[in-house]
Amino acid sequence: MKLNRAVAKVLDRASSDISNLPTHITKVEVDINDATSLIEALQDIDIVVSLVGHEGVQRQHGFVRAIPKTNVKLFSQSDLAGRGLYAQGAAYASIFSTTPISQLENRAIALCELVPTEKDITVTLESKHGIGPQTSSRGLEKIKDEVEQWLESVSVFTVAWYCHKIWGAGQQSQMIGSNFWEVDDYQKATLEDLILGEKLEAYREMPDQVVEYSRHCFQHGRQSDFQPAAITESSLPILTAL
What we know:
Layout: E1 9-12, E2 26-29, H1 35-41, E3 47-49, H2 61-66, E4 74-76, H3 85-96, H4 118-129, H5 140-152, H6 158-168, H7 171-176, H8 191-196, H9 208-220, H10 236-239
Parallel strand pairs: 1-2, 3-4
């Protein structure tokens, strides 16, 4: 992608469906694990925006290894194929197509729409329903112990509780940094819009075993004594958001 002309090139895998891409877009089929061909395909690219899904996240390591041998100035990795991926992609496209490379290279750029606290959410829910939500809390040390026990049992729930730990300890916000980029003319959502205005939509259907696990944790307060039913790979993205 060359910003002075906002030219885009799509690097796709043999298994990718590119039938809906505009005909004027340059498309190059690459094997991400073939370092030589990937380096060659990246030679005239300034910015790489990865849009792989959950199952392809690890394949991004191919880009990490290849990019130092190219002239790529910025790599925007995929965010685990979350629901907002396309909105994020549109925001990045707006930023990258109008901003000089010199202002983008070697930076960690973040997008931020809404950062509510537990209190903010509680107050808004109480305003909507006339009564505050029932809550359940656990200390950081307890969560750390639970994560260790999940690791020992090689459980798929480990990631969910690790995410709880870094969110609760403030590590998540530190990872994002403070270099937030604003997109011109974009109207951000508010809690009032989402909760009072009922614009909050369901993310995806929750598997029965995930619902059962969440109910168990809320009622009993202990996670590691739960014996889950079989968890499919499609459930893993949901577990990280518990």
